[in-house]
Amino acid sequence: MCAERLGHFMTLALVLATFDPARGTDATNPPEGPQDRSSQQKGRLSLQNTAEIQHCLVNAGDVGCGVFECFENNSCEIRGLHGICMTFLHNAGKFDAQGKSFIKDALKCKAHALRHRFGCISRKCPAIREMVFQLQRECYLKHDLCAAAQENTRVIVEMIHFKDLLLHEPYVDLVNLLLTCGEEVKEAITHSVQVQCEQNWGSLCSILSFCTSAIQRPPTAPPERQPQVDRAKLSRAHHGEAGHHLPEPSSRETGRGAKGERGSKSHPNAHARGRVGGLGAQGPSGSSEWEDEQSEYSDIRR
């Protein structure tokens, strides 16, 4: 439940995050020409950005976060890769040997994949975002993110900041993967993010928590409706146990109610036809009941 609530918070955070960068883009980096303007409107990486990123990737070293810095300023608003790299490097000393090995191998894997895949994909922003998501996931899983997180849960939790979830989509992808790394990691991250959310948004987080819990609450079970087949089985079981006992009055009333309650008096032939149909369905075991009911109806006619 907590992980699901956190997922709702992240979704809302991503929605809110789309506004601030969008407001600042045109003011701080106005399009330089019609080509750049049209490419932004179509959701494509501009030709100028593409050339700049490719040139940056060629010159970036294999060590450090230079490759990720190439993606910080672009018209597709793909940010956060450099911040994740810097966060891992700044906290590497707090990890154990396994965690340090993961940081080195995962960052190297991501940098290598970015450098080789960027020139092979479309300039469409959704394609670039999907490429970034896929290579992050592949590198994190390949080098066992969950094993490093389970052995270094406290450090991982310290690295997650609520404000980054509002601004950087790759950061959200990382946290979503961490939430699959076992109950201990999931609960620690969820608690930390909820506390930070309340510190930043105050009572709004409580409202969101209440709303999501109400949405996630399982619906109350509807009134029990036994299928007709189950009722028939129960009826046969009851008759088998009862043997030659007389049927209860309630069973006759139920039978009459099923006929539609057409009136307090009904034609005896109709009852007889109904009883004959019931006898055919019950077989020889129901003959004694049929005879008893016939005697009762004869008493009624008198």
Automatic annotation (TrEMBL):
GO MF, any single term: heme binding
GO terms under cellular component: endoplasmic reticulum; extracellular space; perinuclear region of cytoplasm
Region (Disordered): 23-44, 218-302
Pfam entry (one): Stanniocalcin
Residue spans of biased composition, Basic and acidic residues class: 227-264
BP-aspect Gene Ontology terms: intracellular calcium ion homeostasis; negative regulation of gene expression; regulation of hormone biosynthetic process
Keywords of the record: Disulfide bond, Hormone, Secreted, Signal
Superkingdom, natural source: Eukaryota
Signal peptide positions on this chain: 1-24
Main location: secreted
Compartments reported by the entry: Secreted
Subunit-structure text: Homodimer; disulfide-linked.
Protein task: Has an anti-hypocalcemic action on calcium and phosphate homeostasis.
Membership in a protein family: Belongs to the stanniocalcin family.
Protein name: Stanniocalcin-2
Organism, scientific name: Cercocebus atys
